[in-house]
Specification:
Helix content: 40-55%
Pfam families: URO-D
Radius of gyration: 20 Å
InterPro entries: Methanogen_methyltrans, UROD/MetE-like_sf, Uroporphyrinogen_deCOase
CATH architecture: Alpha-Beta Barrel
Distance between the termini: 35 Å
Protein name: Uroporphyrinogen decarboxylase (URO-D)
Domain Uroporphyrinogen decarboxylase (URO-D): 82-327
Order of helices and strands: HHEHEHHHEHHEEHEHHEH
Strand content: 5-15%
Number of helices: 12
GO molecular function: uroporphyrinogen decarboxylase activity
Length: 333
Amino acid sequence: MADRSAAGRRGAPASLRFEEMTRTERVRAALGGEPVDRLPVCFWRHFKPEGSGRRLADASLRFFDETFDLDLVKLMPDIPYPFPRGGIREPGDWRLLEPIDRERSRFFAQRVEAVSVLRDELGFDTPVIVTIYGPLTEALAFAGRDRFLAHALEASPLVHEGLSVIAENLRAHIRDVMAAGADGVFLALQGCSADVMPAAQYRELGRPYDLLALQGAADGWLNVLHLHGERDLLLDQVLDYPVQALSWSDRRSGAGLRDVHGVTTKCLMGGWDEAGVITTGPASAILAEAQDAVRQTRGRRLILAPGCSVPDDTDERWLHAAREAADQVDLDA
């Protein structure tokens, strides 16, 4: 396990305005809009550990804790939902979706195992959240966008039945990962964009099932809602979701941190373009983008992060530069 003492923390500022916080204290303060010793920071990529909960936990520890000293561990969705992508072709196929046996499904058991390992290794000074794809996101993967939308028109009851089954399975799974020690979930939504469907249709096919799944994390203090996509995001449809933080591609979607900071009291996760300087450098540009995020939010209710996962082959020197930027950024600028 990495040394998380003040002496052992890599790149700590030469002087602090007040006593150094633990990771959990820092993130909690950011959520509440309170002063922090420095900005909490996180970035993430996929690990693809061949379906093992223990290997996923070990890869997460190496990346988030030992290599980059990040302020939260975000368990990645690299153990997929147990239904084949592209497995729904006819309207009647939505009936193939069934309640999942949580004792037998590796989707449940191995991700719960990963959370348990992380909590044992990290204690409670580091937040742990679990990435969950929303019910509509899973449904779009099972059928494909065009087929899903066609079925939603011609066989609406069957589609709703399928979405309900997915949402109930996810609610149960989320309860299990919370019981294993997670502090919340990172609920990733695809389809919450006018580029995929109009707002009225999302209110019918997305929102009710998102909220049903989120019931499993009702006791979480660090639930994050992530909107995936680069244009026409339906942010106004989800601002009232019961989460503490919002994540989206603020540098690529046309909705910047300043825009959203002005319409919600939720904490925002963002500041870096996930396909921009954080992947190419130089370090000065990475710091400049972080400093701009502070200007947009006045450094309050902000977790410094990219708008989505960084490419798996990103040169680690730029990720180290991003971590160092969190120490260097001027919160009073």
